[in-house]
Specification:
551 residues, alpha+beta, five-stranded mixed beta sheet, 15 helices
Length: 551
């Protein structure tokens, strides 16, 4: 993987561009930098106009007109915020691969050959200029005749020498100019060749990326989705930062998205010019109106992002999208900047595509999809993401420390199934014993699927909890989750926990949404082990081979 960090100090923008191909990464970085530069130029123009307005002593009529113009701009900004979701519905979010290719021409002008200087006409001794003019006396006096003949010869000789010198200078100058031209022409041809070579390599890299995407290569799917979100047009004050992860096994895309903070959303609704005071008065939305608009905006961005990703999914590589919305804010207790997840939602493509986004209430739609978040998003109350990107181990098979009772080479997904269930029981004993709870171990899968029963004494969140362990190497389907839910009902438990070495399919997550069920995948298990001072690793491909060889 290649990474390029880009920033724009003027706009206070920062982004890390990632990708498997250096040319594609560099091109995306260049496109982002150009976009930022255009934003910066527009901002400078706006600032310059603002300063000019402030400096100018405008007449009252002009100030009134300015107030009306500023009000119009404020209203347009709020209308943009209110229609963030609808804006994308008329846009085709699929990536046009051909448009990414560099089709520009080599624009450096080709050097022009300097016209050679002409050599003057060579002096000819027979020219009349060099013929002595002899009079009668010259013919009679031979000495005078000889003097004039000699003078004519000297004139010719002098002119000829000057001509030879001039000819040599011109020839040298022409040769020098020609050499310079040939040198410039060679550099121009080399530059053109380099340009065409790099252009070809870039276009071939894009074509390779396209082919990898069409073949479903996970890293290319992530890069494709990155381009989709990069193309999404939002107000300049909004951050455009996100991180993506893709689980190839259950075709789930996880999006950690940085949402706009309260201070990045405009609240100005009107500007009035008060003639009596000769000043402008800004009128902002009331707190309740602004908070409602802010909450609605975040719901819209969430639905819009999911819509764009599904619509752009040309090869049906995404069955499910998990969207985690994060906001940067200042902790009023410490004065330090914090980043908290304030909403999270997991959607299934087939279900989401049935929704008419043009007519929905964004908040109601979010809640109907079992999205998680505070009823007042503007309170910035943090919540736990439904599925969090594991930034330490994006490939899901990295080694972690091994438990004291396990060998370093032991793969949890290839363990004996009874040993695996016993390990899970021991782990939850440690987890619940910390809060005064008790875990009673059941016999291995002979009691209706209950591997362990935990009793949590907490009066609010506690009660009887059933735990099941699944040592799987393939995606866990919805049937296993249904079985757990049935066991929870039969046991009269308050909650069920399903632990697996693999991940779950979108239908499994969808079934568990509104039920007292917790699904822990391989990543969650490794983190839980690490929390209690143990080490382990999960490598599903290796496990499949080991289990196949043992059969």
């Amino acid at each position: 993987m290649y990474e390029v960090e880009i920033r724009h100090d003027g706009l206070n923008k920062y982004r890390v561009i990632k990708g498997s191909d250096l040319y594609v990464v560099n091109q995306k970085a260049e496109m982002q930098e150009r976009a930022w530069e255009e934003m910066w130029e527009r901002k400078q123009e706006q600032d310059a106009k603002k300063q000019e307005r402030e400096r100018a002593a405008l007449k009252k009529e002009e100030k009134k007109s300015l107030a009306e113009q500023l009000t119009k701009e404020a209203v347009e900004q709020i209308e943009t915020i209110e229609n963030i979701l609808k804006h994308t519905l008329d846009i085709d979010d699929k990536i046009d691969w051909d448009s990414l290719k560099d089709k520009s021409k080599f624009t450096k002008p080709k050097p022009k050959k300097v016209e050679p200087l002409k050599i003057p006409i060579e002096p000819n001794k027979s020219d009349i200029k060099y013929q002595p003019k002899l009079g009668l006396i010259d013919k009679l006096i031979s000495s005078k005749k000889e003097q004039k003949i000699e003078a004519s010869n000297k004139l010719y000789q002098l002119d000829y020498e000057q001509w030879e010198n001039e000819k040599l200078k011109i020839e040298n100058s022409n040769e020098e100019n020609n050499n310079k031209y040939e040198e410039k022409l060679k550099k121009w041809k080399d530059a053109e060749k380099k340009f065409l070579k790099e252009q070809k390599e870039k276009n071939e890299a894009i074509e390779t990326q396209k082919e990898n995407y069409l073949r479903g290569v996970p890293s290319s799917i992530i890069e494709y989705c990155d381009m989709v979100l990069s193309n999404s047009n939002y107000p300049e004050s909004f951050p455009k930062e996100y991180d993506l992860d893709y689980n190839e096994l259950n075709k789930t895309l996880i999006v950690d998205y940085l949402l706009p903070a309260l201070g990045q959303v405009p609240s100005l609704k009107e500007v009035k010019y008060v003639q009596t005071k000769d000043e402008f008065k800004e009128i902002h939305l009331s707190d309740s109106a602004f908070n409602k608009m802010f909450d609605d905006l975040l719901y819209q961005i969430t639905l819009r992002t999911i819509h764009e990703l599904y619509e752009a999914d040309d090869i049906n590589s995404i069955d499910s999208v998990v969207f985690n919305g994060w906001v940067k804010s200042i902790d009023k207790g410490t004065g330090k900047e914090i980043t908290a997840c304030i909403l999270s939602i997991q959607t299934v493509k087939s279900e989401f595509e049935e929704i008419n986004l043009a007519l929905v209430d964004p908040k109601v739609c979010f809640k109907n999809l079992k999205g998680v978040g505070s009823s007042k998003l503007h309170s910035l109350a943090p919540i736990a993401p439904i599925i969090k990107i594991n930034k330490e181990d994006e490939r899901f098979v990295s080694s972690y420390d091994v438990a004291e009772t396990l060998d370093e080479s032991t793969n949890l997904a290839a363990m004996d199934w009874q040993d695996f269930e016993h390990l899970i029981r021991e782990l939850f004993e440690k987890e619940f014993n910390q809060s005064g709870g008790e875990v009673k171990i059941t016999q291995a899968s002979k009691d209706g699927g209950v591997d362990a029963v935990a009793f949590d004494p907490d009066p609010i969140r506690g009660g009887k909890i059933v735990i099941q362990a699944k040592r799987y190497t393939n995606v866990v389907g919805v049937s296993a989750v249904r079985d757990l839910y049935g066991t929870v009902m039969n046991e009269g438990a308050t909650k069920g926990i399903l632990v697996s070495t693999a991940d779950y399919g979108p239908d499994a997550y969808n079934f568990a949404k509104d039920k007292p069920l917790t699904l822990l995948n391989g990543n969650n298990l490794l983190h839980l082990l690490q929390k209690h001072g143990h080490k382990a690793k999960i490598d599903l491909k290796e496990a499949k081979k080991i289990l196949s060889d043992n059969q």
